[in-house]
């Protein structure tokens, strides 16, 4: 996976550089930006620290270049509106090009429009009950978003609702899913922003976007600002950091402190799977840091139940604990994958069957796949079965066992240990 994204990112960036050299600046800019999304993904999967650091340095260079290109393209289009053409200097500045007085307002309007896309109008329909385990985390979130709205009197004087909560933990454990539950259950305006979007799509305007984001959140309070994959924005300051991301980070720091601004009624919710990469100053702004770890056996049993939902299966109540004990080390998303595979097995059986046998269901004769050795077999394929005659085989425990045997946990032991270490030092347990 990691190699894949890295290779794709490198290929994309090479195209960008080629276009840049050809002076096709718009194309180069677009390519730098699309490579950025790939870099962010590659970075997420890369385990080797040294490679990671090099990648970050490279990303910073490309981002800076892209930002220069963007400035140039903007000044060029303004100049063009005035009828002139301008060559681009190595530093991205162009000769001439007067900004129109209304340009700033226009821009603000554009950004505001873009941001209204980040406001979730529809509730994602994920309820607290849809989340298995993680009681501690749910509790903290309720303290932060439900109670202050329902009982504002409770939070006065020195008792203030949480302003920043960081959800961290290995991939696929339900961090983004919890945020969806917050969006559904809380009566707040919910802004959802992914860091990679801020870095890639909004590059150059990102820090203004951040400022605007917080001011819109203030206008619409109570609000929740959810920043997914916050590590992509808020890595440690210093080497290998792009000018652009430094400015975004500084803006977030300022806004979260709310100096000169009233930050009451605004909760910033962050999610990351590499908390140790966060800048110390950002870390401090999240008053609560909650570990979203791998599920325990009870959690896993519940996840199997939730993932199967109301799909018909031949499973009995006791089978769920069997499944839970077979899936040690699996994350929530691993389990939904396993369930998907298991539920597809009957479909595959139908596709591959060379023999079917008649069965009676509700007084009607139906056909179901069977082995070539079955005494009642009829040699035929699914092509010969009429749509209303088909009876799909039930999904049985065995199908789940086979699906489990075919899959592996995606979270490594090292990762788990690191998360626990970080929890001991800076966080608290969310299970
Ligand atoms: N605690 C849980 N309860 C129910 N379903 C879960 C839980 N955790 C994970 N899942 C399932 O796994 C999917 C992926 O979870 P999610 O996107 O929240 O992971 P994440 O923690 O945000 O991972 P990443 O760090 O990679 O972004 C969810 O859509 C959900 O179906
Ligand atoms: Mg996520």
Automatic annotation (TrEMBL):
Swiss-Prot/TrEMBL GO biological process terms: autophagosome maturation; intralumenal vesicle formation; late endosome to vacuole transport via multivesicular body sorting pathway; membrane fission; multivesicular body assembly; protein retention in Golgi apparatus; protein transport; reticulophagy
Keyword DNA damage: no
Gene Ontology molecular function terms on file: ATP binding; ATP hydrolysis activity; protein homodimerization activity
Cellular component GO terms, alphabetical: ESCRT IV complex; plasma membrane
Alphabetically ordered keywords of this record: ATP-binding, Endosome, Hydrolase, Membrane, Nucleotide-binding, Protein transport, Transport
Domain named MIT: residues: 2-79
Its membrane topology: Peripheral membrane protein
Keyword Acetylation on entry: no
Domain AAA+ ATPase: 161-296
Segments of this protein annotated with the region Disordered: 78-107
Low complexity composition bias: residue spans: 89-100
EC number: 3.6.4.6
The reaction(s) this protein catalyses: ATP + H2O = ADP + phosphate + H(+)
CDD domains linked to this entry: RecA-like_VPS4
Catalytic EC class: hydrolase
Protein name listed in UniProt: vesicle-fusing ATPase
């Amino acid at each position: 996976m990691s190699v894949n994204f890295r290779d794709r990112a490198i290929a994309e960036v090479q195209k960008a550089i080629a276009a840049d050299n050809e002076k096709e600046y718009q194309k180069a800019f677009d390519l730098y930006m699309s490579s950025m999304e790939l870099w962010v993904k590659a970075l997420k999967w890369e385990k080797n620290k040294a490679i990671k650091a090099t990648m970050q340095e490279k990303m910073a260079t490309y981002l800076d270049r892209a930002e220069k290109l963007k400035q140039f393209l903007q000044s060029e289009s303004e100049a063009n509106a005035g009828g002139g053409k301008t060559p681009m200097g190595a530093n991205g500045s162009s000769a001439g090009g007067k900004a129109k007085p209304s340009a700033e307002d226009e821009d603000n309007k554009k950004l505001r429009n873009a941001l209204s896309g980040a406001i979730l109008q529809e509730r994602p329909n994920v309820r607290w009950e849809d989340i298995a385990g993680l009681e501690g985390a749910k509790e903290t979130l309720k303290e932060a978003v439900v109670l202050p709205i329902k009982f504002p009197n409770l939070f006065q004087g020195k008792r203030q609702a949480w302003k920043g909560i960081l959800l961290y933990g290995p991939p696929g454990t339900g961090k983004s899913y919890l945020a969806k539950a917050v969006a559904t259950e809380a009566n707040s305006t919910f802004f959802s922003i992914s860091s990679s979007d801020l870095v890639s799509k909004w590059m150059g305007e990102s820090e203004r976007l951040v400022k605007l984001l917080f001011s819109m959140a203030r206008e619409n309070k109570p609000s929740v600002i959810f920043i997914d994959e916050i590590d992509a924005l808020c890595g440690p300051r210093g080497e290998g950091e792009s000018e652009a991301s430094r400015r975004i980070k500084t803006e977030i720091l300022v806004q979260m402190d709310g100096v000169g601004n009233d930050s009451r009624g605004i909760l910033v919710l962050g999610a990351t799977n590499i908390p140790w990469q966060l800048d110390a100053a950002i870390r401090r702004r999240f008053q609560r840091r909650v570990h979203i770890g791998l599920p325990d056996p009870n959690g896993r049993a519940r996840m199997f139940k939730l993932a199967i939902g109301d799909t018909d299966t031949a499973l009995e109540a006791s089978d769920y604990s069997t499944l839970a004990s077979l899936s040690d080390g699996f994350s929530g998303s691993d389990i939904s994958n396993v369930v998907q595979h298991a539920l597809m097995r009957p479909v595959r059986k139908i596709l591959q069957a060379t023999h079917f046998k008649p069965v009676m269901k509700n007084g009607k004769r139906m056909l179901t796949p069977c082995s070539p050795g079955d005494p009642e077999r009829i040699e035929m394929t699914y092509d010969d079965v009429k749509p209303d005659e088909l009876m799909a085989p039930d999904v049985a425990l065995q199908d789940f066992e086979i699906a489990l045997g075919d899959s592996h946990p995606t979270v490594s032991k090292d990762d788990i240990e690191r998360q626990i270490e970080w929890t001991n030092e800076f966080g608290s347990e969310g299970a």
